[in-house]
């Protein structure tokens, strides 16, 4: 049997990302064979609705022929071109220009990476370089949010606050600091938006005071905290934090690796609050997952300081695959699809998703429903009044993921048993309804 031998080969040789090695040896892999639109088929022939767009990335859905064609055509013509030696390729140049055109304010400069983690790493390196260039090398401390996720590379993981990404690694992160998340459902100051914003501002100011403003380089935040459980800040939170950063003279980096490219509606979620950060990081929806690509969007005022500081000297930060022409060609076609109705479809489907999930609020296990557009979560509790989480010892995330799979649905099952949704933006309203229906069955089986 092909599937049995694959499972065995996988067990013996393939290390999976974010996995328990022993747990994986015991439970094995489910091999996905093919996909079309929002439907996956595994090697056993099971059909599944992908309520998570792979890993919050396949925004255009699977089997989009025009993307496949763009990649194949680019591979035929020029499969690789380095950006070193002042060389370049047309797709990378055009994609950089299109991103700059769509980005807010003076975010005019684009540095390509392979994904989100190295985009975050690159911001750290560029910010340090920037501060050296302007004669302030001691400004080398970074602040981010509890429950935040900024990647899994050595530097990006430092800004990530999820404990699982630190436990057991022992990498010293004495240059990075955390302040509390806005987490509306469980905020110690209560759910009032003004109180939450005031508390976040006070914590940021206190942290900068504690470290010394002359030592703090930047503050990082996601417009909606994704991996932390889809935590949506109160309206006005991002704007207030952006203004505080300006006032404190620290850079504001907005990590849009999940929220970018229509996930919450517009191309950049931060534009919903009309802010212009100093950096935006993107990946995932940039190519809709069809090819690896991330990017750093850098504000002109930062770029000019770095450029001036380096003069004719090389700035020693570069990847072999920066601006890979095949990934960039894919990105260009994906951007065209967003304009050609995909963003619009995602907006309609997102309204339906949020309405459907709010319809689950009466379920005895549902403590909170939150999200924006095609990015949502349902948080589960055993006691609604006390907001008691599902007991971690019962491994709720694994059980819920398995139940969803058996019901023909892929969702993200968060550590505390919450359900995360990020369907492809191409979903029909019928597919969204079906996802919500299957999620209700999962909840019923979890009672
Ligand atoms: N930043 C955020 C907000 C993310 O959600 C992720 C991944 O999920 C990353 C960075 C890291 O991206 P990648 O997995 O492409 O390295």
TrEMBL record:
Coiled coil: none
Obligatory cofactor(s): pyridoxal 5'-phosphate
InterPro entries given in the database record: Aminotrans_3 (IPR005814), Aminotrans_3_PPA_site (IPR049704), PyrdxlP-dep_Trfase (IPR015424), PyrdxlP-dep_Trfase_major (IPR015421), PyrdxlP-dep_Trfase_small (IPR015422)
Protein keywords: Aminotransferase, Pyridoxal phosphate, Transferase
Lineage top rank: taxon: Bacteria
Example of a GO MF term: pyridoxal phosphate binding
Keyword Acyltransferase: no
Pfam families cross-referenced by the UniProt entry: Aminotran_3
NCBIfam families for the chain: PRK05965.1
Entry-linked PANTHER family: AMINOTRANSFERASE, AMINOTRANSFERASE CLASS-III
Protein family according to the UniProt entry: Belongs to the class-III pyridoxal-phosphate-dependent aminotransferase family.
Protein name: Aspartate aminotransferase family protein
The organism of origin for this protein: Jiella flava
